[in-house]
Amino acid sequence: MTGVNGTLEALPPKLLTLGGDPDTVMAEYLDVIGRTISNHPRSLQKRIGPSEVGQACARRLGYKLLGHAERDQRPNWKATIGTATHSWLEDAFQAENARWLRTGGVERWVTETRVTVGATKTLGKITGSCDLYDRVTGTVLDHKVVGPAQLKHYRADGPSEQYHVQAHLYGRGLHLLGLPVETVGICFLPRNGELRDAFLWHEPWEEQIALQGLDRLEGIAAACNMLDDQALAMLPTADVWCINCPFYKAGSTDPAQGCPGHDMPKAADPAPLNFISNNK
Known about the structure:
The structure is a single chain. By secondary structure, the chain is α+β, with helices and mostly antiparallel strands. It has a domain of 132 residues: Alpha-Beta Complex (Lambda Exonuclease, Chain A), CATH 3.90.320.10. The chain is built from eight helices and five strands; from the N terminus they run αααααβββααββα. It has a five-stranded mixed beta sheet, with helices on both faces. β2 and β3 form a beta hairpin. α4 crosses α8. The relative contact order is 0.14. About 4% of the residues have low confidence.
């Protein structure tokens, strides 16, 4: 299939329903988009990556580590916009590298680099893809495409602990590749609005922040490995949009069947595991 005006193969007559219901076309249109989102590698990823290590809710990490099935969710269109933007940005900075090569014979930007940020005893290597690295300044950058309320929040209060740890983990990944890392940053790009609304958060890279995140993850993984589903009731929760969690189950009294949420009554109130913390 190379174009139109006679270059397309003719459809079998049994497939032709010219003048068919546009609502049916719309349903099929959305189905293609939804299935593509669900089958994207990011959606199918099962291993814990750098973007999840700092997740404030230890129980949510526990569910994933224990292999619990996620509840049925609608295709995540917002995340898909972010993924598409990442791809566009990679192309943009590769094109900028080509300009640098023409004018100075070197490349400035390192894009979408696979890195190993560290390892835990229980899980082994933790790997991911670092969005962008600036060789000139030694800056590690991560792209986040967010809505207006989130953008206002991050501008006022900085990133969540999850994003904070992720940034320093990627810094460690580039450091372990032998690249000098001075600064880590998160570029918050507006999903609605104009490019001038973008906000850059940054701070000096600290390896200890990455190591603390890995240590906490190992504590959660070790508890799950030792206690199986019984660990879930002991893992601390956090107020991080529970209703959007793939393991949320309203009214649940048994964490093994689903989490009732951070502020909902639990079936039991066991003493927390003393080697797991939501703090740095």
